[in-house]
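User: Hey, my collaborator sent me this sequence without any context and asked if I could get a structure. I don't really work with proteins. Can you help?
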Amino acid sequence: SSVSSRTRTRMTHALVALVMAIALGTVGFHLIERQSLLDSLYLTVQTVTTVGYGDVPPRTPAGRLFAVLFMLVSVSTVAYILSTAAQSIIESQLIATFGERRRSRKMSKLHDHFIICGAGRVGSQLIRQMQRAEVRFVVIEKDVSKVNELSERGVMVLPRDATREDTLREAGAEYARGLAACLPEDADNVYVVLTARDINPKLHIVARATEGEAEHKLMRAGANRVVAPTIIGGHRLAMALRKPAVGEFMDFLTADELGPEFEQVLVEAASPLAGQELRSAIRRPELDIVIVGIKRKGGELIFNPSGETAIAGDDVLIVIGRTESLAKLNQLARGG
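Assistant: No problem. I've predicted the 3D structure and written it out in structure-token form, which is a compact way to encode the shape of the chain:
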């Protein structure tokens, strides 16, 4: 950004110098040679560009002396403009080359990360949430203005077409933990899901659907979950309208700042939680959490489990709580 700013400054100075040189020559020839402004401008441009048709030459000794001095000034100005332009082009190419290499090195080190395809309205919200969660992720976006904006925010972004297989491989889809297809067109999201699933059969894929009928296509393409923002927005609006207290509670749960968070916690076999009943394993006053569900290894989902429910290794606890309490629970679940 600072380099491009310096380049723009140099080019601006060069163009200003050229305009001043043409203005100087036009006024000088007009006053010394007593030519019209148009003829003076014509003679000035001939001199600056070194064309020299010779049809409107300076005729007086003073005019010729001024022409000699002006030739030296104009040649120096043109040389400065050409050198500035060449330097800017070379500098831009070097920056692009080194930037590409640096990006490739970073991409090659990615593992167990997330990939976000598209930085539109939905993708931008997802990016903010991922930044807030401080997880590793890379964004694929081909819009240059969005790429520059994300880069300035410190987001790792790949300026490519997300529908291409080589792009997904460059983003590390083979070693990624999850992928979100957030492109504005459903057909593009279907293609991204198909390609990503072929690259990594174990990849957890979430896709955005603009139209309701696209949901089953995305699921058939290989998406694990499909989210339709318009449908979800309609449900939230209906809830806020018909059940305002429930709507306020949902807003509280999904607040970006200071509110409780939903979290999934994997209970490892070595954890002291494994083999215990829920009421004895989780001391809720100490942890300040709420267990809303348990997902078993075989896929069974237990909603609002009772205190007598036994926790097994490889269970995934779905909980609501503050960040500090969730960190303590994660430590217990890992065996700490």
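In plain terms: The chain has a mean pLDDT of 85. You can pass these tokens on to your collaborator as they are.
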